[in-house]
């Protein structure tokens, strides 16, 4: 995209007035999106976004500017703007960029830009038909979405690192609404990966659609969830919403350093049950939150955050790592060239244990089985959270009982991690777009089947140990 000599000149200009570090992030991103609603294709759109962001770090301060002008003059203009934020005196430097290699390489077997738009539309329409066919009388609304992104980046910095990378992500989602008996329920399924169009050949959208529609229909027959304190078993297929929200954000180094994390000052201490190990690994194959390099040009790697209940590490970008007097561990991410990088998760999960998932349900004896999580929110400073349960069942006498609706889970992240009694040998992943500081980035999260000994379940009827608890 640009000659190395030009990049070296731009970086030297950015540091001309001082500063500790400078980098440039150049992006060319082509995106395609298809949406179907009401049985009709509502949108087929594609776009190309090209630009560059230039940053200077000077002590605790950051100066950032971006431009769509990738000429030598355009980049130099942005570099001169950020250079004024570091009034440390005139500084001369001689930057010699050297290309660095990733620790892992990803294969894209079928590039989405080689697939005809008509075929993508056909898959979306097929998913819509499949969802409606589950129960034509009660499935009232179906929304199907498809998207692919091809992002080519060049990253260079004043330390002499030079990176070229291409990321291809593909995803599909289905949202179904069912109505009957005076009520309305929803079902949602999504699949996404750092991969090409082969993703949808291995995960047909029709299957997603049927699963979403079945859940919506089944929830119409579900009985109201009980409320109170009780054991909760979270199935592996529920995905890692809990670990992502209630734990992962609190392990991002910038929040820790600002005192906005419940985990601040606890490194080396016990923060979870001994059976719990939490990992973020952006090197995983076929996961939505994977990448070969982060958005600062640091190779991705596996980071063990909590090991056997003990807090071991945080997620660092370059700035938070400089503050801590250490190197980044590859978690500086940004939504686009218009945004500065910040510490973010990639693929975050609780590592599998040794227990048979069916045995865990039997051992729990009673309580709530969560098979699908909904949305939620968390206060990273305290660790307190509230999550919706999209699909849940009662556990009665160690067996899976009737389906329930309207359940929520309320608790505190560290307390819940400390109350995990058993960890299963399975693991299940979910995908999402994680929001932070106005930026969204693709992530995956996962967990095995886990038994939480005691947690507050909000519902619409009494059923736990505390009759004062009501639906949240």
3D structure, described in words:
With 472 residues, the protein is α+β, with helices and mostly antiparallel strands. The protein has two domains: 218 residues, 2-Layer Sandwich (PmbA/TldD fold), CATH 3.30.2290.10; 239 residues, no CATH class. It contains ten helices and 24 strands. The strands form four sheets. Strands 1, 2, 3, 4, 5, 6 and 7 form a seven-stranded mixed β-sheet that branches. A hairpin with a 2-residue loop joins β2 and β3. The protein is globular. The N and C termini lie far apart (53 Å).
Key terms:
globular, 472 residues, alpha+beta, 10 helices, six-stranded mixed beta sheet, 2 domains, PmbA/TldD fold
The domain count comes to 2
Helix content: 10-25%
Return the structural class.
alpha+beta
The fraction of residues in strands falls at 35-45%
Report the sheet with the most strands, covering strand number, pairing sense and barrel closure.
Answer: 7 strands, mixed
Number of helices: 10
Please give the number of β-strands. Answer: 24
Radius of gyration: 24 Å
- Please, what is the average pLDDT? 94
**What would you call the shape?**
globular
Quote the distance from N terminus to C terminus: 53 Å
Low-confidence stretches: 462-472
